[in-house]
Design goal:
The protein has 175 residues and is mainly alpha-helical. It has one domain. The chain is 69% helix and 0% strand. The chain is elongated.
Length: 175
């Protein structure tokens, strides 16, 4: 046991709260991606059936068609960083004192050992006393990376659907 164990008598409870926060972030992002993908599918059907064809309408159709597989891909767990999509995970780099230790985006930037030491100081000690706590930190890190990847894919999907909206708006104005 470490000397700092007396500072935080319940590091396990605090770590599980952080893990639950990361898990809820993943679930909430899945709901947002699902709603956005359903919106894109409904709008794709609407545009295909009711909107006249034109260059801007085709741009909107192409963007909506691209948004659907992107949304489906965002639903997957994506536990490992795909080599063909390097931009999905932030690079592990120097960390700022301003990093929020309950934010998935900030936690995902840490390596496992750096996160253990940072959370040990952040939560008042006791985390480095057993391997069990370090394993919980590992689970927190995995969930944070999944949440960060899903959030990044959601943002990309928003941009693609935004382009479709601009195409539809242009099609309406062009008439």
């Amino acid at each position: 046991m470490s000397i700092s164990t007396h500072l935080s008598p319940e590091p396990e409870r605090r770590l599980w709260i952080l893990f639950e926060n990361m898990r809820q972030t993943v679930e909430w992002t899945d709901k947002k991606v699902g709603a956005l993908t359903a919106f894109a599918a409904a709008q794709l059907a609407f545009v295909k059936l009711l909107a006249p064809a034109g260059p801007l309408g085709l741009l909107a159709l192409a963007a909506l068609c691209a948004a659907l597989p992107l949304g489906v891909f965002a639903f997957s767990t994506i536990s490992g960083k795909p080599k063909w999509l390097p931009f999905l995970q932030p690079a592990i780099r120097k960390h700022d004192a301003d990093d929020c230790m309950v934010s998935a985006q900030d936690i995902a930037k840490y390596s496992h050992s750096e996160l253990i030491h940072r959370l040990d100081r952040y939560l008042g000690g006791g985390i480095t006393s057993t391997h069990y706590y370090e394993d919980i930190v590992g689970e927190i890190l995995i969930s944070a990376r999944i949440a960060a990847r899903k959030q990044r894919l959601f943002q990309i999907d928003c941009v693609v659907i935004g382009i479709a909206q601009l195409g539809l708006l242009g099609q309406l104005i062009w008439r």
